[in-house]
Specification:
The chain is of the alpha/beta class and 454 residues long. The chain contains 11 helices and 25 strands. Bound molecules: flavin-adenine dinucleotide.
């Protein structure tokens, strides 16, 4: 049962909790004094999170196998899409495992991609849905330790250390995401640059907008273009700066990027491409943004959207293998057999793809691996949906190891289609722009899955 209720309709969280409490006795939290690990011994004796799942034996983390019949104790670090997707996939397979989620934010669940569409959501009178940590605990029968940062991982003893508690795991899933890449520019206004990477920063950004305000977005990738569309459609004057010659240069073939650019310009977005930002200075009127080559833009708010930096510090300090992100294999396993990484913090089979579809597919492989059904991640098709209502885009792309794809294009009155076919004429990748996105379900059924291609 995945809805957290038993056959009598009672919520499983309380039923399991009661059984577990009876089984364990009053207190079996790892006492720092019992720990052999030197970090753990330094640990303050404050046990606020008495409800967190209980470690069994400190220092017992040696084997990669959980003995048959024993209840697994998952610790998931991070409550973003990756953390909750993993929790949901675990619950689909197993209702008895203990799952404790530790997160430095408030543990609520919401659609992060929708943060770049807040004005269009408001225009449609829809709500931005936020599900509280308490609701998620009930739905998935787990414990959320909110506003609790993990400070260290001790792989030798299978223990995660927070400020408040030591949590022992049988399996640890790192889903710590990535931070916005800070802009490195000259000038005295670095601290005025906004970055939207979670609900709080999105509210902060929205609060800075005021009547008559001009916005400059640095970065014309997915997030930059979605914000440009949302803000311009809501009536704000928007400039977009990028060092690349086309918007969406890292995702789409240039002609598709140009197509999106034309549509966004038609609603008033001004692009400054092939330029980098030299400096941002405070002025009496707001901010002055100097671009390389001499152009100066006036703005009141600057949004930085130049990419992400995977959070690798915890993994690195724990001795896990880290490259651009936390290195994991096709089962999402790190260099330690009991620790997995998923989402924006993970580099799967050498490829770092910070997208929702990557998380959905990887989480299934991770959970299958844990429950001993060996099904490594397959070479993936990435599906990217651009939420630019002025010019919607769906891209279905393959991970390629080198080589340039040969695209063919078909442009009609209402949209643009781009295809990559192999030498036998089979459809391998496609991008649909404008009203052509309606063809996506039909094409997705026929596109060759990468594992089928030579
Ligand atoms: C504005 C915007 C629009 C987007 N649009 C799209 C889109 O259209 N399509 C798409 O595929 N993707 C999109 N993305 C990307 C997508 O949202 C991310 O790939 C995805 O949400 C990442 O989820 P995550 O769980 O890996 O990371 P996050 O959501 O960043 O979650 C990380 C979690 O880890 C916690 N954490 C970090 N460090 C610690 C610590 N030390 N201790 C405890 N907890 C910790 C954080 O509090 C957080 O809960 C968009 C992103 C943004 C910002």
């Amino acid at each position: 049962m995945s809805d957290g209720r038993d056959t009598s309709g009672t919520r499983r969280v309380s039923a399991v909790g009661k059984r577990e409490r009876e089984r364990r006795g009053p207190s079996r939290y790892v006492d720092p004094a019992e720990q052999t690990d030197s970090h753990a011994r330094c640990y303050p004796r404050r046990w606020r999170h008495r409800h967190a799942h209980v470690p069994s034996r400190a220092g017992a983390c040696r084997s990669h196998e959980t003995p048959p019949g024993s209840v697994r104790s998952f610790v998931i670090v991070g409550s973003g899409f990756a953390g909750y997707t993993a929790a949901r996939d675990i619950r689909r397979r197993d209702k008895d495992s203990r799952i404790t989620m530790v997160t430095s934010d408030d543990g609520s669940f919401y659609s992060k991609p929708a943060l770049s569409n807040l004005f269009s959501i408001a225009r449609k009178n829809s709500h931005f849905r936020v599900t509280s940590a308490a609701e998620m605990e009930r739905e998935l029968s787990l414990t959320v330790l909110a506003n609790t940062a993990v400070r260290a991982i001790h792989p030798a003893s299978c223990v995660v250390e927070t400020e408040e508690a030591l949590l022992e795991y049988s399996e640890l899933i790192l889903a710590v995401g990535a931070s916005a890449r800070p802009l490195s520019v000259r000038g005295d206004a670095q601290d005025s640059i906004c970055y939207v990477n979670d609900l709080e920063s999105s509210i902060d950004f929205k609060n800075r907008l005021h009547e008559g305000c001009r916005i400059t977005i640095v970065g014309a990738g997915l997030v930059g273009c979605e914000f440009a569309n949302d803000l311009a459609a809501a009536g704000w004057p928007v400039d977009v700066v990028d060092i690349a010659e086309q918007p969406l240069a890292a995702i789409l073939p240039p002609r598709c990027g140009q197509y999106v650019r034309d549509r966004l310009e038609a609603i008033g977005v001004r692009f400054h491409l092939g330029r980098s930002v030299d400096s941002i200075e405070r002025t009496e009127r707001g901010l002055s943004i100097a671009l390389q080559g001499g152009t100066v833009l006036d703005a009141h708010v600057v949004l930085g959207a130049t990419g992400l930096l995977p959070r690798v510090e915890l993994a690195k300090a724990a001795g896990l293998r880290v490259s651009r992100a936390i290195v994991v294999d096709g089962h999402l396993r790190t260099s330690n057999g009991r620790i997995y990484a998923l989402g924006d913090c993970a580099e799967v089979l050498g490829s770092w793809r910070p997208f929702i579809s990557t998380i959905t597919m990887s989480s299934r492989a991770l959970v299958a691996a844990i429950f001993a059904q060996v099904a490594p991640v397959q070479p993936m098709l990435r599906m990217i949906t651009l939420k630019t209502p002025t010019c919607p885009v769906v891209a279905v792309l393959r991970d390629r190891s080198g080589g340039v794809a040969e695209w063919t294009f078909h442009e009609g009155n209402e949209g643009l289609q781009a295809f990559v076919r192999d030498s036998a004429g089979r459809l391998c990748e496609y991008v649909l722009c404008g009203s052509e996105v309606t063809r996506h379900p039909e094409l997705f059924r026929t596109v060759e899955k990468p594992s089928c291609l030579p």
